[in-house]
Amino acid sequence: xxxxxxxxxxxxxxxxxxxxxxxxxxxxxxxxxxxxxxxxxxxxxxxxxxxxxxxxxxxxxxxxxxxxxxxxxxxxxxxxxxxxxxxxxxxxxxxxxxxxxxxxxxxxxxxxxxxxxxxxxxxxxxxxxxxxxxxxxxxxxxxxxxxxxxxxxxxxxxxxxxxxxxxxxxxxxxxxxxxxxxxxxxxxxxxxxxxxxxxxxxxxxxxxxxxxxxxxxxxxxxxxxxxxxxxxxxxxxxxxxxxxxxxxxxxxxxxxxxxxxxxxxxxxxxxxxxxxxxxxxxxxxxxxxxxxxxxxxxxxxxxxxxxxxxxxxxxxxxxxxxxxxxxxxxxxxxxxxxxxxxxxxxxxxxxxxxxxxxxxxxxxxxxxxxxxxxxxxxxxxxxxxxxxxxxxxxxxxxxx
Length: 400
Fold this sequence. Notes:
- This protein is α+β, with helices and mostly antiparallel strands and 400 residues long.
- It is built from 10 helices and 15 strands.
- Among the domains are: 73 residues, no CATH class; 194 residues, Sandwich (Jelly Rolls), CATH 2.60.120.10.
């Protein structure tokens, strides 16, 4: 482009030519000569005119091949909005073969189906009957099966002093962490009256989970943590004036190096690492690279009975969430698992969850979880159905 020698005061916009074949370039020129615009000092380029002519010819070629070119603004609109950036949409090459007049739309990807919860893990294990006082296993025994009580109750006790640590009734389970870690039993269990249990051998399930490259392991780990949380809160609500706070590692915020060091120590010393099964499972979830980490701002709702699940469950890593249910307020901190059983079964939330402060979470995407569960071993599927049923039952009891 060549310089315009005339002074700004002597410059006038060129007259509008209604028959011009380069209306866009003409509009740009008129804008450059606008009274309130700073003079540019350049004249119209013949190259720009030639480009616009070629563009018009390309549009004619597209129409001749049955392709409607993109709709652009009129020259007048271009002049009015010349300062606004142009957003170019992707375009098909003008030299490509004509598109067929009717092209079938791609088939939509079916959303995976939610899993129906079950009060017993069908096809997952065998029924075993124990007589009153019979020991199901002793402290220090190999943890090689998960047991679910279908009738009667059991006592969890310390054989050193015969002190009863807990009583578990119908629907309760024990030995869940054997699915993931194996190891040895941390306490003894005996029947209180006649007891029927479904016992699920865990060695083959552990082999399947270790070989899986998807989200089966984080899913099972998350469900076991969510059940642990529900069990703990159920016990706390039964105590008068008990603090309704749940956290696994307390106020211990570990950076990635410290967390990996703890895990390495646990793997090197499986029977003496000093971590509970829940703490170890939480550290593994926090360290996994299979789940993305996200930040939610204070005041954000993470779920409520009035809003449908948004396709994600959360493992709380840092910060605090307040849960409101049945007139109670519960503070959930590190290690809390929110919305996993609900997302797997398509069940609405029974409580309202609001971030009290900025919270960091590991996100468990439900679509991927459900797709992995569709192809899962029947034993794992049975455990998932039972565990989700138990979690939802316990959480519903919070409202009473």
